[in-house]
Specification:
Elements (H helix, E strand, L loop, with lengths): L9 H13 L8 E7 L5 H4 L6 H4 L30 H6 L4 H12 L8 E7 L18 H17 L4 E5 L1 H9 L5 E3 L7 H11 L1
Length: 204
């Protein structure tokens, strides 16, 4: 979008990132982790759920981008200095704390490979507070969660052997309301990282 993206090619770049991420995991994933919605520091600019653009471009201290997809690094799609003043964002794009916690926990398990996991959002779009400031996040409405569910169902159908893991209450409630069997782990935001880590480790 004007004022946020590097240009009209940004949408195609993010779509390519998503395809590159999903292809090696499709029909092979052991787990599908489903959170609530896309955040502006994460998939809004990376195109990959629960993953920041610093991760896809190879500018993250924790994650080698090749754990996300093979080949060349991804391409940044956010303009510098959307959030001011923020020198790191200007130089490297957005980083997302939730993405770092989730990827870090998955990678800490020696039992699984990065391609054993698919990350997704019940509402696979970015809900923001107002058109005047789209660099905000808000909780998706019940209608939005319902609108997003068919995409999650398609992903489950393409990976019928994968166990479903709801991250956070909104995701869990949406899956439960449609009788979709799943595990439930706390969302790591707002000081619940330790609870998230314990729940994931007890499950996988």
């Amino acid at each position: 979008m004007t004022g946020y993206d590097i240009g009209p090619e940004a949408v195609e770049i993010r779509s390519e990132h998503l395809v590159r991420y999903l292809e090696p995991r499709m029909s092979k994933a052991r787990y599908i982790f489903i959170a609530e919605a896309v955040g502006y520091q994460g998939a809004r600019f990376s195109g990959v759920p629960l993953t920041s653009e610093r991760m896809v471009t190879g500018n993250h201290s924790l994650l080698n981008y090749q754990m996300i997809f093979a080949g060349e690094p991804g391409v940044r799609t956010s303009l510098p200095n959307i959030v001011k003043p923020n020198r790191s964002q200007a130089l490297y794009g957005f980083a997302e704390p939730t993405a770092s916690i989730i990827w870090g926990e998955v990678l800490s398990s020696s039992r699984w490979k990065p391609t054993d996991f698919i990350f997704w959002n019940i509402y696979p779009f970015h809900p923001y507070h107002s058109s005047e400031n789209r660099m905000t996040n808000r909780t998706p409405t019940l209608a939005e969660l319902e609108d997003g569910l068919p995409f999650a169902r398609q992903l489950m159908q393409l990976n019928p052997d994968a166990q479903i893991v709801a991250i956070g209450r909104k995701s869990a409630d949406t899956l439960s309301s449609h009788l979709i069997k799943h595990h439930h782990v706390p969302h790591p935001a707002n000081g619940r990282a330790v609870q998230f880590q314990k729940a994931v480790r007890s499950m996988i």
